[in-house]
Amino acid sequence: LAAMLPVLRRCRPRSVPLPVLAAAMGPGPFPGLCPGWSPQAVPVRGRKTRYDPPAKSKANRVKLPPPVDPEELLVVLDRYRQHRLVLSALRAEFRAEVLQRKREERLAVEGSVEELEEHRRLMAWNEEENARQRARREERFRKEEEEQKRRKLEIAEKQARKMEAFLEEKEKEVLQLQEEAKNFITPENLEARIEECLDNPRNYNFAIDKDGRIVKRTVLT
């Protein structure tokens, strides 16, 4: 311990002049905290600039847009269109209400009773005209609906008449087939029909002219 005392005395901190301390710490905005600090010495890891070449792993990459389903795109576009129409209608309605309120407030403030009365009269006339046009439109729609119902009824009646004629024709065909079925060859009358054919032979080997008359016939042997 006695041998270490001179060494400890030499390591005792002493007062150092400020210029010497500043020169030892180096330049920087916070001397004493970051010795030897300078903006050029700080390592920075940032993004590439627009002039830097692409990475080797992405040099041949081709950016393709994501696939879009045509049916889904049509549905989305139609919904966006409806959304824009609804928003524009709401904005127009709110804008009209705000303008109407401001106009009434301005007329009330100015004290123009005649203009306010004229405006109310015109608005009442406008409401009456709208109601009249609405009634005419509803009447037109009602007539169009009645005309459409009448056309549908006529088409249904025509289809019913056509179906009835078709069924009658088919019924006649069935009756005709039933009459013709009486002369069909069946296992029961097979022997009798064979005997009838043998007793009454027919010669179908003949020639006819353009008018359908028989001009030549071979003789049965």
Automatic annotation (TrEMBL):
Keyword field: Coiled coil, Mitochondrion, Ribonucleoprotein, Ribosomal protein, Transit peptide
Disordered: annotated segments: 45-64
Record-linked Pfam families: MRP-S26
Annotated TM spans: none
PANTHER family (UniProt xref): 28S RIBOSOMAL PROTEIN S26, MITOCHONDRIAL (PTHR21035), SMALL RIBOSOMAL SUBUNIT PROTEIN MS26 (PTHR21035:SF2)
Major localization class: mitochondrion
Domain of life: Eukaryota
Family to which the UniProt record says this protein belongs: Belongs to the mitochondrion-specific ribosomal protein mS26 family.
Coiled coil region boundaries: 99-180
Species: Certhia brachydactyla (short-toed tree-creeper)
The UniProt record lists the keyword Plastid: no
Cellular localisation: Mitochondrion
Name of protein: Small ribosomal subunit protein mS26
GO CC term (a single one): mitochondrial small ribosomal subunit
